[in-house]
Amino acid sequence: MSLTPSQTVGPFFSIGLPWPGGPYVVPEDSPGATRITGCVYDGAGEPITDSLVETWQADPEGGFGAAEFRGFGRAGREAGDGTFEIVTVKPGQVPGPDGTMQAPHIDVSVFARGMLQRCVTRIYFADEQEANDRDPVLASVPAERRATLLAVPQPGGYRFDIHLQGPGETVFFRL
Amino acid sequence: MRRYAPEPEGTHPPLDYPPYRSTELRHPKQPLVYLPQTITELTGPQLGRERVLGEHDHDLTRQHEGEPIGERIIVSGRVLDTAGKPLRGTLVEIWQANSAGRYRHVGDRWPAPLDPNFSGAGRCLTDDEGRYQFVTIKPGPYPWGNHHNAWRPAHIHFSLLGQAFAQRLVTQMYFPGDPLFEYDPIFNSVPDPAARARMVSHFSLEDTIPNWAQAYSFDIVLRGPDQTVFEEEH
């Protein structure tokens, strides 16, 4: 059977996709809960106010699929200022290719009007330098662009901006 | 874990597609970096219980006091992977304009009436054979600002989580024989005409309910396992 093609999420996805619990991968009062805040920018450096950001990650022990850990976040705050916020916990390390271990990371899908398919990126954590230095995916990214994948600690959590285009364009992946 | 097959060229639209003007500032210009499929990409959220709660989540004609105006239709089909395997218990989310082509959204300002009895969103989980079903009204076409006299063909937005991050898909379902297809850059952004045709639902007499609703069928195919390449086990 042949794949169904992708189409844009369009300008009106907030009718169907975001829900109040979406940004909460874990409840706010969970041990270790942290807040990843960011903004999606276009090639003119303007915030994209109709973008949808989804995240998928391991639990703090590096496990997937535990019934009590959703692992998924969805933030799509249209007609706002373009910022998104995900409340989560830092994931554990998980295996990578060829017996390697991957640094803690979160897979991200970015959708918006004007995007005919999602863009995939990853959030790594700037305060995990040792693990990041050994991460096989980060190693495959040109050194001068790696910083675009690092969430930077700030009070209450981390900052992770996404630049679809232009100076500091975020690294996007093909999988 | 089984890896997913590469997506064939020509199926998904390019991110840079000048006829759809909003792509201009919203596509990466740097080359994409190859991401090996690791456990993070081979697993994915199972959101059912949290998102499908109400008995009318799948019936967009019964979410208000009265019935919405428009052609009542049943939209159903299967969610499968490219190997033909049905995806069971997977979340299907839809949203759409009303029968006049107006979305219930602050950003939709064109002068077509809103329908007090229509919100335009639905959710359901596939059954053991990968089947889903919605009851709704047929959305209308509507104008948009992409170019002079631009109209979108009638469509329903579909969102599929699949079983793994690698399978995630957002698409649009169209209706057969729409005269607007040839003028619509979003529909035509899919390079392969055969792939484009897979976004068009089929009229299904079999699924109609006499004296009550017409029916359209729409199967959705997500990425399936790579059956051509041996991967080393780690």
Write the SSE topology.
The complex is a heterodimer of chains A (175) and B (234).
Chain A: E1 34-41, E2 51-57, E3 72-75, E4 83-88, E5 94-95, E6 101-102, E7 105-112, E8 119-125, H1 129-133, H2 136-139, E9 150-154, E10 157-159, E11 162-163, E12 173-174
Parallel strand pairs in A: 1-10, 1-11, 8-9
Antiparallel strand pairs in A: 1-4, 2-3, 2-7, 5-6, 7-8, 9-10
Chain B: E1 33-34, H1 39-42, H2 48-51, E2 72-81, E3 91-96, E4 121-125, E5 131-137, E6 142-144, E7 150-152, E8 155-160, E9 169-174, H3 185-188, H4 193-197, E10 202-203, E11 214-217, E12 220-222
Parallel strand pairs in B: 2-11, 2-12
Antiparallel strand pairs in B: 2-5, 3-4, 3-8, 6-7, 8-9, 10-11
Please give the largest β-sheet of chain B.
5 strands, mixed
Which structural class do the helices and strands of chain A define?
A: mainly beta
Q: Indicate the percent of residues in helices of chain B.
A: under 10%
Principal-axis shape of chain A equals: globular
CATH class of chain A: Mainly Beta
**What would you call the quaternary organization?**
heterodimer
Mean pLDDT across residues of chain B:
95
Net shape of chain B: globular
Low-confidence stretches of chain A: none
Q: CATH topology of chain B, anyone?
A: Protocatechuate 3,4-Dioxygenase, subunit A
Q: How many DSSP H or I helices of chain B? A: 4
Helix and strand run of chain A: EEEEEEEEHHEEEE
